[in-house]
Amino acid sequence: MNEAAARHVILVRALETTDSPDKPWNDTDAAWASRAAAEVVGSEADADRFLARRGALAVERLADRDRQLRRLAEGRNWRPWVGSLMVAVAFALGILMDAVGPSRYVNLLAFPLLGLIAWNLLVYLTIFVEGLTRPFRRTPARPGALRRAVARLGGSLGETLATAAPASPFTVFRNDWAQASAPLTLQRVSQVLHLSAMAFALGAIAALYMRGLVLDYRAGWESTFLDASQVHQGLRLLLGPAAQLGGVPIPDAQHLENLRLPAGHGENAAPWIHLFALTLAFTVVLPRALLALISGLRARGMQNHFPLPLGDAYFQRLQRGFSGREARVHVLPYSYAVSPAAMLLLQEGVTREFGPRASLSVAPPLAFGDEDALPPSALPDTPPSLVLALFSLTATPEEENHGAFLAALATRLPTGTPLAALVDEAGFKARFDAQPKRQEERRRAWTRVLEKHAVTVTFVDLTDTDPGALAETLSHILDHSARPGGPR
């Protein structure tokens, strides 16, 4: 679905998942929207088309009931004119920049454009390092202050807002949409910043030649620590590519010695202006144009194929209702025997969360030390909707055993299957109920081990937990697993 359709879907989700006495939507409306969307798209349509049509029908029905909702549904997440204005301002600032200093001498070692080139090279290095380290981060890097400011100017809803509970559906929507649209907003902001940097460099180049038409600039250099041969080597390194392409040779050390200030009087700066302009084009204009093109293509792709977390509990329920497919939850205990009471509780929680047609399967417990070779019975033949690794809090978590078990299990799961961990506290509470500090320490130990494998961990008492609370836990697991950058 595209960006507009995704906005409608998330708005309807906020209405359907938020408890509010005055919201203009109820269960009857939700059932109508699902039924009407299914009739329009047909039984052979995929979930993406069904959800997009459902959101459009719901917004169309709701538009006459609430003006605020209509404004939110029709709102835009980006103001294109802001980007155009920033590019124009950057070009004007480049022209206004005193590119050659207050005097008419072009100091070859203190040329203001050298700072512009160095800054852009530093930006490229930062982008390169960020790209290399991105796969190893658990959470996405937080945008800098400049990117956040541009996002706000562009009309993005920005960061999520801290609100007192209970939140209204409209506040929930704003927060959800800010999170869902963050990757698209980041690409749009990146495109604007790259185009602005390119425009600034073009403005600086234009200023050089416009001033050179009416003023006689002289080129020279001065330094306390460098001699002519060292200056020659530095200029060859910096301006060499431009010199070869433009056919403007870099003078030798003896010639540069004659340009040394204040003893020398310099020379006509035109060849040097050509060299610096070409260098600026190679190091700033062309790379920034390429980066802007990449960001623009990525933004266009996200705009036309908006990445929604369709694996979360809400969307899973809608898709199951549309397709008639039942949910399958598979539990795999590790060195833990599931009691009949715990089995009944798990079944009740699954039924409450996924509906009466949902099925629960529990594999035979895997013995301690057998984690390296999972038996065929560890996973069902039919791909499950959710896999839960079940542990006992009485066990001391060990990376070489419990961690290895999770790693082996993750490699066997179909791509996209949510994997989470349940840690039963019943046995530990029975032995150390009067020592809550010890229980908390054991929880932290389990969390440290399991989070290394990007697995959501939840602590439950399978002998004394309300089935409704367990159902909410399963919903949380699905939501967390479906978030970008969250566990698999």
UniProtKB/TrEMBL annotation:
Any Pfam family: DUF2868
Entry keywords, A to Z: Membrane, Transmembrane, Transmembrane helix
InterPro entries: DUF2868 (IPR021296)
Signal peptide start and end residues: none
Keyword NAD attached: no
Transmembrane segments: 78-97, 109-129, 192-210, 272-294
Protein name, per record: DUF2868 domain-containing protein
Organism of provenance: Zoogloea oleivorans
